[in-house]
Amino acid sequence: MKSYAVIGLGRFGGSVVKGLAERGQEVLAIDRNEDIVNDYMDIATQAIIGDAQDERMLESVGIGNFDYVVVAIGENEQASTLTTLLTKELGAKMVVAKAATSIQAKVLAKVGADVIIQPEADAGRRLAERLVNKNIFEYFEISHDMMFAEMKVNNPKLEGRKISDINFHDKHEINVSMVRHTDGTTEIGAGDTILHVGDFIYVVGKKKAVSQLSNII
Ligand code: ADP
Predict the structure, then answer these.
(1) Are residues 138 and 68 in the same domain?
(2) In a shared domain, residues 184 and 154
(3) I need a surface site. Which of 6, 97, 152, 155 has the fewest CB within 10 A?
(4) Domain range for residue 7?
(5) Residue 110: its pLDDT value, please?
(6) Which residues of the chain have pLDDT under 70?
(7) pLDDT of amino acid 74
(8) Which residue minimizes the CA distance to atom 26 of ligand 1?
(9) Which of 117, 143, 173 is the C-terminal boundary of a domain?
């Protein structure tokens, strides 16, 4: 089993702790605010009060031995930067740091953060993507011009049609990897897979093509 430490138990860090606990993972939760730490006593494997800018505190909990350390200190940029730096210096292999701004993201990269996330900016972009491409429910970017997307079949003209009839590959330069039917069954996308309104399809392809498809599917 992997071990996790989450530093900073605001809305973001707190949700990470809850998500890990719900998945049966061992998680150490740290915050300098006693009241907040008390809220996590029964949720985290261990919850401790501590200032993450204090190197001795980080060392005493063995921060360098965790498989993943999440630095989720929000607006306090100095604390977030120093904590990331100390955590890496103490040997943590994988440090995920939350940045409030793109400038902070650059600083966190400089001090050694392995993964940097900007939850508000990411959520905003995801919402924009969903608003523009009405049938896309989830997606992730594979590269600057390729994406993977989950989209819902809404067009009655596609009811009962085979994937090969719709000619996804040639016409839309898209590969349908998987189909999830309304009864919850799934199948690998093949030429003879039949689509129904309400099905979800999981496609890989050029962003432009995925976007176009999402508006006609
Ligand atoms: P969010 O935007 O995710 O809600 P917040 O900025 O509200 O983030 O919360 C950050 C948390 O980090 C707070 O609970 C705060 O007490 C904690 N925190 C801030 N500085 C430190 C520090 N030096 N050491 C430990 N915890 C800290």
Answers:
(1) no
(2) yes
(3) 155
(4) 3-117
(5) 97
(6) none
(7) 78
(8) 31
(9) 117
* Number of structural domains found in the chain: 2
The CA-atom distances, in angstroms, between 51 and each of 57, 59, 172 are 7, 12, 54
46: β partners: 28
CA distance 204 to 209: 9
The closest-lying atom of ligand 1 relative to the alpha carbon of residue 82 is 23
CATH number of the domain residue 69 falls in: 3.40.50.720
Distance from residue 142's CA to the centre of ligand 1 (Å): 32
- Within 6 A (CB) of ligand 1 lie 7-13, 30-33, 36, 51-53, 72-76, 79
* 160 plus 206 within the same structural domain: yes
* Residue 100 alpha carbon, nearest atom of ligand 1: 2
- Using the mean position of ligand 1's atoms as its centre, give its distance from the Cα of residue 70 in Å: 12
Tokens coding 73: 């200190």
Residue where a domain terminates, one of 82, 117, 152: 117
Instruction: Supply the CATH number for residue 129's domain.
Output: 3.30.70.1450
* DSSP bridge partners of 147: 141, 205
Handedness of CA 158, 161, 163, 164 (dihedral sign): negative
How are beta strands 26-31 and 115-117 bridged, if at all?
unpaired
Report which protein residue has its CA nearest ligand 1's atom 7.
10
Ligand 1 atom closest to the Cα of residue 79 is 23
Q: What is the DSSP string of 2-46?
A: -EEEEE--SHHHHHHHHHHHHTT-EEEEEES-HHHHHHTTTTSSE
